Structures are given as structure tokens and as C-alpha cells.
């Protein structure tokens, strides 16, 4: 029992001959180990012994969960096999009590190992997860199976999809602050993989401990892919974000001599500022000249020559002349509009952007403001321009402490359309909820009350927001919540019903009737979204993390699926009422506010 395995015995296990194994191993020596603590079952699993051999060794007393000096069990060894793994072999261990989620000394479970072993096929990998494998287990470096898989040289897209379908956390960070998306941009040039993670909620602007975004990581590579850069930018990558040395993505490009022609122009056309300085006072233009990076330097100089200015307010967008007059007529009909001239606005930095709109922090008459304008240099269709126009027409008539305050804008030239609103120092609610900052119940309830009061004001003014979600709730320095982004808002008709034949909004927070594409709906779509928001505030989890937009349409719209809800959740009763599948059952906003105020008194 205390003896070490001999060289001959290990050779027998490697050859995998059943008769020889029976001859050499029985009850009295079945748990012999080598100097590293591996038993005959460890070796048999590593050499992918057949079902008969595994059953024999276990029947003679081999411990299926015995850990060697590295903490590896026979099941860990089976997942490290250099041969194609069969489900039959896996079944033998599982049916005899092998633990899928037992961690080795380095924290890795069998799912970590199987995710990165190409010889474990998709069917076997799915079977392990269906048998109880934890897709969100973390190893000693705080890496999940998904993060490890994304770090491999050629990540398997099918295994990534399996992990996402099993609700693998998409924005989990390792000990260095890296997310799966950070890892993936380093190890693939396939846009489809990047798009898969983004569709499932990956945050393109997440920063690691060095404050590098996914776009920073892409441009650290020797030959960054232009197509990947496009995907990240279209998904909202913020080009003005600086790392811990103050370097933007354009600084990274300036320092990379392998940048292909056209990539620098892509960054510049989407808002990168070639004159933005890092903490050493260096601009991308100066850096590219300093290291003789001629491609980048030429494109920056050409851009500055053509545009004449790096001020986003002075740059023009490209708009079809056919729809220009129609938009101007719409906006000019506004009675309560304060016109602000572009030259009166001083821009400091970009703070956010979307598919067709970007937002800057600016200064207007000594006051810190947020400036929203169409992304310069892009062509816009009528639907996108109508959304932006709708936002102008909506916000100029709103005045409530829980609605972001509108100061004015510029509308005389559709190529320079802009909206000036109050700047909220506290950032958005999404970032707060999914950060590590402490929030007590009283703070959570007060945020919910603030948002509810904003909704009440909108509904009293016959408006429905249609895109209520945590990224569209901003916070002041003192923590007061304010609703923003009214590009999708609509006016109610006299029957309190909306007529629409397109799906709008963000699926994670979107009401089932909107996802089903119903043409008649009421302001109860905002109540549903508020229910999801309450769940997010209570749990501080991302709604439906791991699911893509196409999956969500069916799961929410037709199957009635909701995020997992516990009776211990702060807003349990209210959440259930708000996200009811039947809009008529959902409470009125006045009832919700009353319930929240009572809850605040009790806390």
C-alpha cells in the first residue's frame, strides 16, 4: 500500500492491455503511487484506457477523487489526455463519484482543462457541463474556463458558444483585470468570434489593471487587424480612453511600426484626437515622428490637413441632402428651443459613443456640460437622423429633477446637429452596479425611487422611453439618478397605445411585447424594463448574461423567461409584478413609487 509504482507497472498501464493490468494490479497494490502521488487510475486515465480497464481499477479500490501532489484527480488526468476522449470513459468516472468541480492546487477544475484541450470534442465538453461542470469556476489566477479558452492560440468558437449558452460570465476579470474579450482580441483575427462575445454582452470599454481597453490590447499586437478594430469601434469602443500612462489607442498605433495602411485613418475618422497628449506631454503625431513611424505619421498629417481642426464640434457629418430640409423643418417648429452656437462650446474629452452618436464633456459659459452630436465623417440614413431629431424634440420640453436637464443645442445646420445637456459627474448606473463599490439597501432604494419618479414624469407627459436600462440612467456627484437618452422615445395617442412595426430598444431590458414585434403597446413597456432594472439594482448582476439578442427574443418574448429571482432579493414582490408577461397586470408607476417609499421607510 505504501510502495511506489514500478517502471514496469507504469509501462503496463501505458500499453493498456486489460489482461496485463489484471495480472499486475489487484486489491493489495491498487492505490500504489509514483513519487508525485499518481495512482494506477491517474495513469490509466492519462493514457486514455478503455472503459473495461477503468471499471476494473475502480472495482479493485482505486480512489476516483485521489489527488496527486499537484491536486490533480484521475478526472483531471483524463481531461489532459493526448488522445481523443470518449464519453464512455468519462461516464465510468462520473458514475463512480468523480467530482467535476474539484480544484487542483492551481485552482483549475476539469472544465478549465477540457475547455483548452482540442482533443476533447464538443459533444464530450457539452456532456461534462450538462453533468454539473461549473462554467464559472475560477482558478488561482481568477480565470474562468471561458477566459482560459479565449487565451489559447486558436480559440474554438463552438466551445465558446457552448460556454455562453451555459451562462458563462462574459465580463469576469482575472487577477490582472483581463476579460475574455481582452484575451480574445490578442488571439484571433476572426471578427465572428469578437462579435459573438459582444452580442452576448462583452464590454468593449472594460479596462484591465493597466487601464487598457480591448482596443488598446488589439493595438499592442504586432499586426493589429483593421476588421477587428472596426468591429470594436462599431460596438462603441471609446477611442479617447487613456491607459495608466495616458496613452490612447492612437498613441499605441503611433508606437507600432507594423500598422498597415488605412488603420490610422480608421481611428482618426472615428474620433481619435492626434493632438491629445499622454502624461509625458506626447501626442500621437509627435510619437510617430519620434520613432520614424512613417505610415502613421503620414495619415495623421493628411487628416489634419484635410480637416483643419481636431475640435469635434467644428467637424461635419455626412447627411443625404434629400432629408436635410425635412429634418430642419421638424426641428425649427420647436417653440422652446435654446440655440447655442458651436463656437460657444469648449470640448475637453469624449465620454461615450454609440452607433451614430458620440458624447463629449464640454464647457459652456463656465458650466460643465455634456455635448451629444452625430459622429463626424459618417454617412447617416433617415432612421438614424430621425432618432437624433426625436431626442432633440423630446428633451427640449422636459423639466424634472430626475431627467437629465437640457440646456439647448444647434440645429441650423444638420451636418452639425448637437444637444447640450447637464453633465453628471457620477457616471452611469450600469458601471456603478457592476463595479466593486459598496451600495447599501437605502442607496439602492433611493436610486430606484429617483428613476421611478422620472418615469412618472414621462408618462404624465404622454411619453414612453422604450429604452430604459442602467446605461441610460446617469448619476450626479451626490448619487441622484437621472434618466437620459430619448432617441427612441414616443408620444402616446389618446388611447394610451403606440403604433409601431419595428423592434426597438435593448433586448436584455426589453418588454416581451416589443420583442414579439407587436404593433400595439402601452407605456407598460417601461414598467417591464423598470422591473429588470430593479433586479439589476438588487442583485448587481447583468440581466441574461451569456445570451445574445437573437436568443433573448425567443426566451423573453415567447417563452416568458426571466432572470433568476430569489425571495431574498430586495425588491422581490415588486419585480414579479413589474415584469409580468401580461402588460395589463403590471402596476402603474404611481403604485410602484408608493411601494418603494414604504420600503425605504422600513430600511
TrEMBL record:
SUPFAM superfamilies: Ankyrin repeat, Protein kinase-like (PK-like). Keywords: ANK repeat, ATP-binding, Kinase, Nucleotide-binding, Transferase. ANK repeats lie at residues 36-69, 70-105, 106-140, 176-209, 210-244, 245-279. InterPro entries: Ankyrin_rpt (IPR002110), Ankyrin_rpt-contain_sf (IPR036770), Kinase-like_dom_sf (IPR011009), Prot_kinase_dom (IPR000719), Ser-Thr/Tyr_kinase_cat_dom (IPR001245), Ser/Thr_kinase_AS (IPR008271), Ser/Thr_Kinases-Pseudokinases (IPR051681). The keyword Kinase applies. It holds the Pfam family Ank_2. The keyword Nucleotide-binding applies. GO terms for molecular function: ATP binding; protein serine/threonine kinase activity. Gene3D superfamilies: Ankyrin repeat-containing domain (1.25.40.20), Transferase(Phosphotransferase) domain 1 (1.10.510.10). Transmembrane segments: none annotated. Residues 345-600 form the Protein kinase domain. Belongs to the protein kinase superfamily. TKL Ser/Thr protein kinase family. This is Mitogen-activated protein kinase kinase kinase.
Amino acid at each position: 500500500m505504501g510502495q511506489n509504482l514500478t517502471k514496469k507497472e507504469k509501462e503496463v498501464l501505458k500499453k493498456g492491455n486489460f489482461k496485463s493490468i489484471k495480472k499486475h494490479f489487484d486489491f493489495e497494490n491498487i492505490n500504489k503511487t509514483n513519487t508525485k502521488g499518481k495512482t494506477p487510475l491517474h495513469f490509466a486515465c492519462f493514457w486514455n484506457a478503455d472503459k473495461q480497464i477503468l471499471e476494473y481499477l475502480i472495482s479493485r479500490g482505486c480512489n476516483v477523487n485521489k489527488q496527486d501532489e499537484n491536486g490533480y484527480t484521475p478526472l483531471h488526468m483524463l481531461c489532459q489526455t493526448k488522445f481523443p476522449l470518449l464519453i464512455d470513459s468519462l461516464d465510468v468516472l462520473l458514475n463512480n463519484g468523480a467530482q467535476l468541480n474539484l480544484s487542483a492546487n492551481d485552482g483549475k477544475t476539469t472544465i478549465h482543462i477540457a475547455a483548452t484541450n482540442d482533443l476533447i470534442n464538443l459533444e464530450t465538453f457539452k456532456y461534462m457541463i450538462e453533468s454539473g461542470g461549473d462554467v464559472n469556476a475560477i482558478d488561482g489566477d481568477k480565470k474562468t474556463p471561458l477566459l482560459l479558452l479565449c487565451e489559447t492560440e486558436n480559440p474554438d468558437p463552438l466551445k465558446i458558444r457552448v460556454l455562453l449558452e451555459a451562462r458563462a460570465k462574459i465580463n469576469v476579470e482575472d487577477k490582472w483585470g483581463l476579460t475574455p474579450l481582452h484575451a480574445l482580441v490578442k488571439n484571433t483575427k476572426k471578427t465572428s468570434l469578437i462579435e459573438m462575445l459582444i452580442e452576448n454582452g462583452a464590454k468593449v470599454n472594460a479596462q484591465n489593471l493597466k487601464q487598457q481597453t480591448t482596443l488598446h490590447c488589439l493595438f499592442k499586437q504586432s499586426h493589429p487587424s483593421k476588421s477587428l478594430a472596426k468591429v470594436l469601434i462599431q460596438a462603441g469602443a471609446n477611442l479617447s480612453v487613456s491607459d495608466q500612462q495616458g496613452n490612447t489607442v492612437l498613441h499605441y498605433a503611433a508606437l507600432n511600426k507594423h500598422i498597415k495602411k488605412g488603420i490610422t485613418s480608421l481611428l482618426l475618422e472615428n474620433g481619435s484626437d492626434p493632438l491629445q497628449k499622454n502624461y509625458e506631454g506626447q501626442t500621437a503625431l509627435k510619437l510617430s515622428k519620434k520613432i520614424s513611424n512613417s505610415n502613421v505619421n503620414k495619415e495623421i498629417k493628411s487628416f489634419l490637413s484635410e480637416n483643419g481642426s481636431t475640435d469635434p464640434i467644428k467637424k461635419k457629418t455626412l447627411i443625404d441632402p434629400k432629408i436635410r430640409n425635412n429634418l430642419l423643418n421638424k426641428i425649427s417648429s420647436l417653440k422652446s428651443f435654446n440655440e447655442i452656437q458651436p463656437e460657444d462650446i469648449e470640448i475637453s474629452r469624449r465620454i461615450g459613443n454609440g452607433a451614430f452618436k458620440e458624447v463629449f464633456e464640454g464647457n459652456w459659459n463656465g458650466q460643465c456640460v455634456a455635448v451629444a452630436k452625430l459622429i463626424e465623417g459618417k454617412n447617416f440614413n433617415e432612421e438614424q437622423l430621425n432618432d437624433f431629431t426625436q431626442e432633440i424634440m423630446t428633451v427640449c420640453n422636459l423639466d424634472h429633477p430626475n431627467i437629465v436637464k437640457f440646456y439647448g443645442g444647434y440645429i441650423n445646420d444638420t451636418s452639425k446637429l448637437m444637444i447640450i445637456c447637464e453633465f453628471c459627474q457620477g457616471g452611469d448606473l450600469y458601471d456603478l452596479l457592476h463595479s466593486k463599490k459598496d451600495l447599501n439597501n437605502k442607496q439602492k432604494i433611493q436610486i430606484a425611487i429617483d428613476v421611478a419618479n422620472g418615469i412618472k414624469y414621462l408618462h404624465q407627459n404622454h411619453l414612453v422611453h422604450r429604452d430604459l436600462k442602467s446605461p441610460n440612467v446617469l448619476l450626479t456627484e451626490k448619487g441622484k439618478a437621472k434618466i437620459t437618452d430619448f432617441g427612441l422615445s414616443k408620444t402616446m395617442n389618446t388611447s394610451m397605445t403606440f403604433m409601431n412595426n419595428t423592434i426597438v430598444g435593448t433586448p436584455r431590458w426589453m418588454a416581451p411585447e416589443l420583442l414579439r414585434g407587436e404593433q400595439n403597446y402601452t407605456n407598460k413597456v417601461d414598467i417591464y424594463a423598470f422591473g429588470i432594472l430593479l433586479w439589476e439594482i438588487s442583485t448587481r448582476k447583468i440581466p441574461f448574461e451569456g445570451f445574445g439578442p437573437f436568443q433573448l427574443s425567443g426566451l423573453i418574448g415567447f417563452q416568458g423567461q426571466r432572470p433568476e429571482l430569489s425571495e431574498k432579493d430586495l425588491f422581490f414582490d415588486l419585480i414579479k409584478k413589474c415584469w409580468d408577461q401580461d402588460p395589463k397586470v403590471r402596476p402603474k408607476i404611481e403604485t410602484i413609487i408608493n411601494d418603494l417609499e414604504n420600503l425605504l421607510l422600513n430600511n
